[in-house]
Amino acid sequence: MTSSKMAERGAVLCVSGLAATVAIVGLAVGACGDDSDSSDSTAAAGSTAVTTATDSTTADSGSGGSYKDGTYSATGKYVTPGGEQSIGVTVTLASNKVTALELDRSQTHGTSATFQEKFAGGIDELVIGKNLNDLDDIKKVSGSSLTSGGFKKAIAQIKEEAAE
């Protein structure tokens, strides 16, 4: 093969690689969306979900520490492709277990509001009735992995506040 043919093929491969890269980036941006949309397309996004445990049996302290009974709130921030987002978390503790959970999603708009709504729909079963120390391994809830990061930051703040 002549050097001009090789150079020609190299240019085609280079352009094809660029096109594939652009296509992949486009898919990623399309999937994540642009959170800069300030319109409140999800009216329910600002509402809070409240769930209360029906079983209030005493729990062992689990790994970590012991916490004072009470209601604690914190806000966890996390970064999305559309910018910084936050989720407010309020938990009620009894014998180191989470007996109630509220999420404040009112400050989030655009695609992140949709993901927080999905997160809120699946988090209760992973949290209610669980020891506060067992919440560190929550990674992805109902397809929302970034919201989990903000949730875990809020839980870390709550642990500090509630520590005995």
Explain this structure to me?
The protein is α+β, with helices and mostly antiparallel strands and 164 residues long. It is 40% helix and 22% strand. It contains three helices and four strands, in the order αββββαα. β3 and β4 form a beta hairpin. The longest helix is centred in the first third of the chain and has 30 residues, at 3-32.
List keywords for this structure.
3 helices; 22% strand; alpha+beta; 4-stranded antiparallel beta sheet; 164 residues
Strand order of the largest sheet: 1-4-3-2
Separation, N- and C-terminal Cα atoms: 76 Å
> Which regions contain 5 or more consecutive residues with pLDDT less than 50?
6-62
Largest sheet: 4 strands, antiparallel
Helix vs. strand class: alpha+beta
Percent helix range: 25-40%
Order of helices and strands: HEEEEHH
The average pLDDT score comes to 72
> How many H/I helices?
3
